[in-house]
Amino acid sequence: MSQVSLKTINQDGRQTTVLAHACNTTCLSCFLVLISSQNTNGRRVWPVPYRRFDRRPPSDAYCQALYPFCPTGDPDGRIPNMKDSDVISVFRLQTPVWEFKYGDLLGKFHIMHDAIGFASSDTGRNYTMEWYELFQLGNCTFPHVREDILPPFWCNQGAACFFEGIDDVHWKQNGTLEKVGEISGEQFNNLARWVKEDNETGIYYETWTVRSDPGPNSTTWFDSYDCSQFVHRTYRKLAKLGAKLSSKTQTNYTKIYLYSGEPTYLGDDGSIFDNPPLKTLAKDIRKFYHSFQPHQSMFQFILSLIEAYEKVVLEKTFYFFYNFEYWHLPMKSPYIQITYEEVPLP
After folding, report:
1. Best CA proximity match to 89, nearest among 152, 179, 159, 174
2. Residue pLDDT tens, the chain, 346 long
3. Residues 6+ apart with CB under 8 A from 132
4. Are 171 and 94 in contact (CB under 8 A)?
5. What UniProt keywords are attached to this protein's entry (predicted)?
6. Sign (positive/negative) of CA torsion 291, 292, 293, 299?
7. Preceding peptide of 344 cis, ω within 30°
8. Which residue, 322, 312, 255, is CA-closest to 288?
9. Distance (Å, rounded) from C-alpha 36 to C-alpha 52?
10. Which pTM value belongs to this model?
């Protein structure tokens, strides 16, 4: 099988090289996960660092979005440059997922979407910045099980969207639109450069946070990478740039948890699905995801989550896909949980 090298940057700053098209040898895959998921002492690092890449790959033509990604944003993802002396207001934005279609329905389950707003005092223009899925949430949470290829096929990319205007009604009606601080035009321009870098290296969406239990001292095995995490990273960057942020309301955010014992690394597409001795494992993974095909309808997606809940409770098994690799999660009570917990501004 041909091999294509792709540099990755781990959260601890180390650079490693992985194979975009993996070899058939399981030992090589094990070696790759060791250098990407263990520290210099040879011990497993939890949570597993989110793998960053040096470029964003093009989307596969098979992946189609029900709603186009960032339809009014700049096609090249450019963010306007502000005068250094400008005063930019920063707004915290939050609304129920798919509020435009279902109103406050998903808000009742605390399934919220988060974004950040900016307003220039110099030009009077305001802007919205958010990070979300290119092909809707279902495609990022579950893969397609296709007849023409053996491995599950993932349509999973997430990206930042920046566009002019803040839809006050959209954010205020069932959610939050609150000014949380001010920054200078110079700070905004520095933030814009960071957003571009963050967006180019963090290419895929992760719905789940995986923990050992709901307790305060639990171990986090894997972190989510979603709209709220982008907002948190942006707030932290603003704080490093000298911004003073504060809110008069409690800053709560949606988290979707899986609970399991210590995960077991299984391998990537090549080491599992191109390896005859692992034929049974490959079949089990396909069977597991066959019940949870991605759905474009949010109503169908909720039904899928309910089905997933029943499956993991009965079988106590979840095949988890992270960093383009598969892990086995030995699930345990309470299995799956949606929380709406406070994350203070930095």
Report:
1. 179
2. 333 333 333 333 333 333 333 333 333 333 344 444 455 456 789 999 999 999 898 999 999 888 899 999 998 889 999 999 999 999 999 999 877 776 777 777 788 999 999 999 999 999 999 999 999 888 899 999 999 999 999 999 999 999 999 999 989 988 999 999 999 999 999 999 999 999 999 999 999 999 999 999 999 999 999 999 999 999 999 999 999 999 999 999 999 999 999 999 999 999 999 999 999 999 999 988 987 775 546 676 677 667 667 778 888 999 999 999 999 999 999 999 999 999 999 9
3. 69, 113, 158, 159, 161, 205, 226, 227
4. yes
5. Glycoprotein
6. positive
7. no
8. 312
9. 11
10. 0.83
Q: What is the largest CA-CA distance in the chain?
A: 65
H-helix or E-strand containing 130? strand 126-133
Q: Which residue has the tokens 């704080």?
A: 239
Residue with tokens 């709406």: 340
Domain count, the chain: 1
**Tokens (6 digits) for 68:** 């186009």
| Residues with catalytic function | 113, 227
N-terminal to C-terminal alpha carbon distance within the chain: 48
Tell me which long-range contacts 304-309 makes (C-beta under 8 A, separation of at least 24): 304/138, 304/142, 305/336, 308/336, 309/335, 309/336
At position 257, the amino acid (one-letter code) is Y
* Strand ranges, E, within 30-175: 52-53, 87-96, 112-120, 126-133, 158-164
46: tokens are: 């939890």
The CA distance from 54 to 202, in Å, is: 9
| Tokens matching residue 92 | 């915290």
Task: At 56, list the tokens.
Answer: 């964003």
Secondary structure of 299-343 as H, E, C letters? HHHHHHHHHHHHHHHHHCEEEEEECCEEEEEEEEEEEEEEEEEEC
